[in-house]
Amino acid sequence: MLVPGSKNILYFLLLALVEPGTSARPRPGYPIYSSLVSFVGAKPVSVPIREANQFRLDVEELRSLVTERTRLLVVNSPATRPAGC
Question: For residues 15 and 31, what is the distance between their CA atoms, to the nearest angstrom?
Answer without folding.
Answer: 18
